[in-house]
Amino acid sequence: MSFLRNPLLLLGVNLSAIAGSTYLLRAHHIYNLEEHEARMDELEGTLRGHIGLIEEALDRLEGTATEADRGKKMDAYYGTRGRYEKDKK
Asked: pTM above the 0.70 mark?
């Protein structure tokens, strides 16, 4: 049983355990980040659609909307979802 007391073997086992757990935690974290981003994109689209519906209702209450305008704002807001990145010069 002297091989279990070998410092190099113990160091190797410890380092491999740390490296393995770090890799698994990193993979799990990346997966969670992607899932979170997908949920936020879906939520953003939903909120944009609701904003469009609210603005259309407001236009109808103010009397500035026509029947042809119905659904256009919601579609315009919902269609522009996604990240806005500044132009890189």
From this structure: no
